[in-house]
Amino acid sequence: MTYKKNELDVDFIGGEGSLTEEEKKALNDYFNSKKTKIAKLPSVQKKRVAKRKRSLA
User: Chain-centre distance of CA 22, in angstroms?
Assistant: First the structure.
C-alpha cells in the first residue's frame, strides 16, 4: 500500500510580506461579521432520548 502526497494549492493573504493596516481591518471586519451571523442563528439542541430499561418478562 503506497501513500501519495498531494501538493496543496494554498492562497496566501497579502503575499510574502506582512499585511497592511487596510488588509488587517478588512479581515477583522469579515471575521466579526461571520461571528455575529453565527451568534444570531438559533441554537440547535439535540433531543434527549430516554434510555430504555430492559425488563425480564
Answer: 24
What values do phi and psi take at 52, rounded to 5? -85, 135
Output DSSP code: residue 13: T
Q: Cα(32)–Cα(38) distance, rounded to whole angstroms?
A: 10
Do residues 20 and 14 touch, judged by C-beta distance below 8 A?
yes
Q: Say if residue 12's pLDDT is above 70.
A: no
CA 42 – CA 32 distance, rounded (Å): 18
The verdict on pTM exceeding 0.70 is: no
Distance CA 39, CA 57 (A): 50
